[in-house]
């Protein structure tokens, strides 16, 4: 079994499989279920940039780079299309999730499907005051670009920028807000427009309601191993750390997959004992 070669195929990191159109990108996200937007250091996962490039390469600094332009441009084009979820999620970095897999992520969140779910989290100390202020600004005013959002959340001062940014990531990871467009405003004439996740994906709570957390973990972990072919437990825990699985929950989920034989443990030379997707064996 050649893990690297199979990853090149799965990740579309070959000249033949590289993504050439925005429709290719949409099909790629549907195929892998979830992936990062950019490559993330020390995290094994498909990403859109390498799939566009058709090879593994560093993210360039030049704005005119054709692979970079496609990656950024296609993402912006798709923001208002509801083709997928785009936002900060896995590793708190930009993540794309297909609509087929989004209910499983939602089932693992603290949301129950009501616009005021955030209040219970805030009262339990699971949501910061800054995140609450941002959420309530969008709840009251509707979709807001980043500049106005900072103003409405009373965090427009330069000293509040880092707190605002952290809170905005917190809300995206919690599947409470989502970028849905771009506004020509701010210093760079480029600012995301944010909306409440539930208002943007109104059917998601109903789709996720019947999904047990144990099932959601199993589905996501199986899809992950099918994508990456093989990974050790440490990498799996690292990839999904924002979902706050306990070691017991992770071991239980892996135990189910091993029992069902959709995953096997294999000793691979120089890599030790790895969890390997049954599709690769």
SSE blueprint and pairings:
Blueprint: H1 3-10, H2 22-32, E1 34-36, H3 48-53, H4 66-78, E2 84-88, E3 94-98, H5 102-107, H6 117-123, H7 129-141, E4 144-145, H8 146-152, H9 161-173, E5 177-183, E6 191-196, H10 197-200, H11 204-209, H12 213-228, E7 230-231, H13 233-239, H14 247-259, E8 263-268, E9 272-277
Antiparallel strand pairs: 1-3, 2-3, 4-6, 5-6, 7-9, 8-9
Helix pairs in contact: 7-9, 12-14
Summarize the structure in words.
A hairpin with a 3-residue loop joins strand 8 (263-268) and strand 9 (272-277). This protein folds into three domains: 3-100, no CATH class; 117-207, Arc Repressor Mutant, subunit A, CATH 1.10.10.10; 212-280, Arc Repressor Mutant, subunit A (Orthogonal Bundle), CATH 1.10.10. Helix 7 (129-141) packs across helix 9 (161-173) and helix 12 (213-228) packs across helix 14 (247-259). Helices cover 46% and strands 15% of the residues. The protein is α+β, with helices and mostly antiparallel strands and 281 residues long. It has helices at 3-10, 22-32, 48-53, 66-78, 102-107, 117-123, 129-141, 146-152, 161-173, 197-200, 204-209, 213-228, 233-239, 247-259; strands at 34-36, 84-88, 94-98, 144-145, 177-183, 191-196, 230-231, 263-268, 272-277. It is built from 14 helices and nine strands.
